[in-house]
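thought: user wants a sequence for this fold. calling inverse folding tool.
action: design(structure=
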């Protein structure tokens, strides 16, 4: 069973990763749509990491979230 502290840390990783990715998306492609914001906000930390790596070579936000 996951402890409260472990869940809190995991939630912090997710929120921090989502905030960084949203900032990168906005810098590279302009303000993200609400649907993109929701997808990023609901993604797990591993997915956020993969998307953060894809933004380096992506031509559009859909290529990032593929």
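)
observation: tool returned 66 residues.
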């Amino acid at each position: 069973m996951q402890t409260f502290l472990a869940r809190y840390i995991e939630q912090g990783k997710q929120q921090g990763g989502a905030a960084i990715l949203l900032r990168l998306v906005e810098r590279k492609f302009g303000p993200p749509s609400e649907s993109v914001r929701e997808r990023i906000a609901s993604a797990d930390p591993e997915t956020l990491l993969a998307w953060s790596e894809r933004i380096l070579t992506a031509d559009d936000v859909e290529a990032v979230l593929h």
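thought: summarizing for user.
answer: Here is the designed sequence. Residues 4-64 form one domain.
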